[in-house]
Amino acid sequence: MHTVSPPADFADWRNTARALLAAGRHPDEVLWAQPQEAELFGGESKPPKPNKSLTIPKAFIEMARSAAAHRDPRRWALLYELLWRISHKEPHLMALSTDPQLRQAQRWVKAVGRDIHKMHAFVRFRKVGEDELTGRESFVAWYEPDHFILPLGAPFFRERFSNMNWSILTPDACVHWNGMVMEFTAGVDRSKAPDEDSLDELWRTYYRNIFNPARLKVKMMHSQMPKKFWKNLPEAAIIPELVSRSKGQLQAMLNSEERPVKPAPKNAYLQSLHHMNRKALEALDKQEGS
Amino acid sequence: MELPQKLAILADAAKYDASCASSGAERKNSLGSPGSKAVGSTGGAGICHSYTPDGRCVSLLKVLLTNQCIYDCHYCINRRSSNVRRARFKPQEVVTLTLDFYKRNLIEGLFLSSGIVRSANHTMEMVIEVARSLRVDHHFRGYIHLKTIPEASPELIEEAGRYADRISINIELPSEEGLAKLAPEKNLARTQNAMGHIRKRMDEHSEEKRDAAMRKKARPAPFATGQSTQMIIGADNSTDHTILKRSCSLYSDYKLRRVYYSGFSPIPEPASVLPIKPPPLVREHRLYQADWLLRYYGFGVDEITDAQAPNLDLDLDPKLSWALRHRGQFPVDINRAPREMLLRVPGLGVRNTERILSARRFTRLRLADLTRLRLAMKKIMPFIETADHNPTLLGLDDDSLRARFLPPPKQMELDFVSPPPTRADRIASTTGEI
């Protein structure tokens, strides 16, 4: 049995896997030791240099890059097994979504993709300062992703907010942007991030009023915005109140008195519209008549 | 009036517009201008930054510039006959709100609409001023969706299109008669005329872009990349057939990105002309499913609804309902059937159809393979044949097959007002579209 220490990240796994493949190590002979939290960002493993160039389908590399960000400790071994199968006898494996191992990897990819998407959606920046001379603003967000997605998710924020300084803090790692470079540092505790922003109340005002109490679909909200996200969303605090009030609000609407039509104000534009519409309807009637 | 109060009134006034999509824009971002104030990016899939308890996605700051309105559309809370509280934003207030929310990653951008004040042109000018200020004064590169008024001058619609990623005109109701009754200031022909003009401009713009790319010239001035519209469901007595026919023509003649169906929802201040009732949420949902079948599954309107059965089956999704009416075309052989036929199998979506097509080049598919794709096996099995399964024993020809798919009566009662989200619902809502 050949033991390798768990890779730090995708690049690390790729080097290791290439070397193992080049050495002809069958997946059954390789033991990917269980990762320890500390090693994940430490990167201790020193794989042998690969001695042979390999052509691997691009689709596999892309899949492996995403799946590698999943928290499941079995991912390294499974990805190596897939790589082995693709390079021995099953070059078409990527087309077989019905294969149990490939399905598993695809499910990891999906979970990672969703996690990145939710991070782009639910990161909430809180303003922490503004440079007096340049007016450049600084923001900090706290976020708790399910998987190791910070490096994959961060470039989105650089593209969108390149002219702000910002940091996203997570328990696993942090990323900071100063307008020039993105810097990754070790994870921190939640207490390092601000809890509030001066705009929170205004945002809740918007959230309260854009909600339509006549069409309550709470399950739908939960499926898209599960409760685990709520603690970092300023608007989530008023959800119970909105839900509990909605029934009464709908009833009040259904019971409310109907308003009679008010006459049109004197307005030249309005009169021209009414005139045009009358003509159009007359034409339509004539058409149907003939 | 204080800003929070205005925001409350003008967000409340805007919530009946179903669209909140922020996808399909041209790729742009804030990089490449260090030291500037540029902020924002577009071009990926839309992002829903929150969800309200009505299950709807919050992607854009969706507000009216003002809810004062000289029109009297009876389904609308903001019509002139309503006694709702009125408010009016200054353009600068909307600009600041958009930027402040955007920088906190609360929104993808702005969806601005307005009640009609004085005239179409006057109103359009105010709406455009907000978009202009965001784009020009503040280098805002996020998403902007502007609601336009069909009667506004072509020059103003052109200007709106220059600043916006998406522009839209609401068709409101599928027929001229319906509009005449419920929206006396609106007119279907004028609305379609304006849509035709916008489509022509979008076509021209994409041609200019192609041309510029080929000759390596500078890119043309931007123009919106999509238009969409909304139809209100259940306010007039239009059938689903009329509605879907109208959608089809909107998709083909005007190349609309999306037609939104908005179930007529109770409003405070109802009109005597149009009594309110609980929103037809199930009907709205079935229309979205039918709309999907038209756009992605190769169905024609007349296959889904026709003069004899002009309304969709509320109990079953339209694909299953079609399959039950056309049992002669089943079972479909998963290992041999062409793509068009696989897409017609109840419970089989576009993605899994592709997976099946790709996998069957290398292997004969069995039921266990389909189970691994996590298909709804109970739904799909009566309609398919695989290497190890033939459905005749499952009663494809049995009269009771339909009954097997009906929801149990008690649940039906509960679900009528608030149906649980389906898989299609979830997929739709992750893309920011409903």
Question: Can you offer a commentary on this structure?
Answer:
The complex is a heterodimer of chains A (290) and B (434). Chain A folds into three domains: 117 residues, no CATH class; 70 residues, no CATH class; 56 residues, no CATH class. Helix content of chain A is 46%, strand content 11%. Chain B has 434 residues and is of the alpha/beta class. Chain B folds into two domains: 310 residues, TIM Barrel, CATH 3.20.20; 84 residues, no CATH class. In chain B, helix 3 runs parallel beside helix 4, helix 4 crosses helix 6 and helix 7 crosses helix 8. Chain B is globular. In chain B, 49% of the residues are buried. Chains A and B meet through helix 5, strand 4, helix 6, helix 7 and helix 8 of A and helix 1, strand 1, strand 2, helix 2 and helix 12 of B.
Helix content of chain A: 40-55%
User: Can you tell me the CATH topology of the largest domain in chain B?
Assistant: TIM Barrel
The helix tally of chain A amounts to 10
Order of helices and strands of chain A: EHEHHHHEEHEEEHHHH
Q: What is the C-level CATH assignment of the largest domain in chain B? A: Alpha Beta
Approximate strand percentage of chain A: 5-15%
Report the C-alpha radius of gyration of chain A, rounded.
Answer: 29 Å
Shape of chain B: globular
How would you characterize the largest beta sheet of chain B?
6 strands, parallel
What fraction of residues of chain B sit in β-strands? Answer: 5-15%
Count of helical stretches of chain B = 17
Q: What spatial order of strands do you see in the largest sheet of chain A?
A: 3-4-5-6-7
- Which oligomerization state do the chains in this entry correspond to? heterodimer
- Corresponding CATH superfamily of the largest domain in chain B: Aldolase class I
End-to-end distance of chain A = 90 Å
List the chains of the largest interface with their residue counts: A-B, 86 and 99 residues
Number of strands of chain B: 10
